[in-house]
Design a protein that fits this description.
The chain is built from twelve helices and eleven strands. With 378 residues, the protein is of the alpha+beta class.
């Protein structure tokens, strides 16, 4: 592991040196310093960052340490649990299965065994995701993929990770080995993500679940997750669950997520109509655009189109961000081993502009006079 860390560090330095000499209006040194200052302000033990421009890795760097002993430095090749950024992989995997005629997004979720019991349980709790949930309504797979399960079905957006985390059970019932076979193995959803995303994108330092024995080194090198209190005291958290339920489960690096981003843009993993569906906002029952679809938030901010997802796992100590600006062919990728990236995005809105990390990125890379006039200010 130490040899790989040293090799990754050397490669990262070479990449940064090459990229810094490239033509750009951005001061990467200044961006670098501000990022590290914000990391320290948020008391994040380890952080890895990458910026992709015009389908090429523009810049990347690691900060801090990946372990509790502060012996292993974070590099752009350090694997992190990406938490809910996994949903972008799940949405794309479902689009592939739908394009191949293997599933229908109009199928009722209640046709999956044990779904009704879960729905009734959730509806009877005081959890925020239970608000407006009516299990007698026709909840379809598309409603779960677009977070349109609540208030009433198909009429509004409300983030519902509990429902999203049952999507693997739907696939296992429909195409795999049954709902009871989701856990304890590299399940059908994980295999689908491998087949249609990770392998064709050549993401060699990623795994779709931690039951993938062929990616054992990725699991071994995974950065430790931490809980950091107000005084900066760090508590090492337990490792996440090994299987992928739907809402989380993917482990990756910023370099591999850069490959993922490029493969989306170039059509390598988004053939035919899949790319159009992925890049377009979902709609509500009345035909208006929704702020979420197929694993991505969509919004306009100061005249710029954004598609993004964050990740936040306080139980295991990770947070993440994947922010794309399709019209500018520009992407910001951020992975950490604490909760420090999380900014409290509301469950019924898309507001990445409230993130201080996103604001640093906008200030460094986005010129306001180059906005898209078709995108209303938000």
């Amino acid at each position: 592991m130490q040899y790989l860390q040293r090799l990754s560090s050397i490669l990262a330095i070479l990449v940064i040196c090459f990229q810094s000499s490239a033509s750009t209006d951005v001061s990467l040194d200044e961006f670098d310093k501000k990022l590290d200052a914000l990391r320290q302000e948020k008391m994040i033990p380890g952080m890895s960052v990458a910026v992709v421009k015009d389908n090429q890795l523009l810049w990347s760097k690691g900060y801090g340490h990946a372990d509790s002993n502060r012996e292993i430095a974070v590099t752009p090749e350090t694997p992190f649990w990406i938490a809910s950024v996994t949903k972008t992989f799940v949405g794309l995997a479902f689009l592939h299965l739908e394009a191949n005629g293997q599933i229908s997004f109009d199928e009722l979720a209640a046709e999956t065994p044990e779904f009704d019991g879960l729905c009734q349980w959730l509806a009877g709790t005081t959890i925020p995701f239970a608000e407006g949930l009516d299990c007698s309504e026709p909840i379809r797979i598309k409603h779960i993929l677009h977070h349109q399960v609540n208030k009433p079905v198909g009429d509004a957006f409300m983030y519902n990770p509990i429902m999203y985390s049952r999507l693997s059970r739907y696939l296992e019932h429909k195409l795999g080995e049954g709902v009871r076979s989701v856990e304890g193995r590299h399940n059908f959803l994980a295999q689908t993500i491998d087949k249609h995303i990770i392998i064709p994108a050549k993401m060699t330092r990623s795994m779709a679940s931690m039951w993938d024995r062929s990616r054992a080194l990725v699991y071994f090198d995974l950065a430790d997750g931490f809980k950091v209190d107000a005084r900066g005291y760090k508590t090492k958290m337990p490792r996440p669950d090994k299987h992928i339920p739907g809402g989380a489960g993917v482990v990756s690096t910023v370099h591999d997520l850069a490959k993922y981003d490029i493969a989306i843009s170039t059509g390598k993993i988004t053939p035919g109509k899949i790319k159009h569906k992925l890049m377009s906002p979902a709609t509500f029952n009345n035909g208006s655009d929704a702020p979420y679809g197929y694993g991505w938030y969509f919004q306009c901010y100061q005249g710029h189109r954004l598609m993004w997802h964050s990740g936040w796992d306080p139980d295991h100590g990770y947070s993440a961000m994947l922010l794309r600006m399709p019209e500018k062919n520009l992407t910001f990728i951020l992975l950490t081993n604490s909760e420090g990236v999380w900014w409290g995005n509301p469950i019924d809105q898309a507001r990445i502009q409230d993130s201080p990390f996103a604001q640093l990125f906008f200030e460094a890379f986005v010129k306001q006079d180059q906005s898209d006039p078709s995108c209303a200010a938000g």
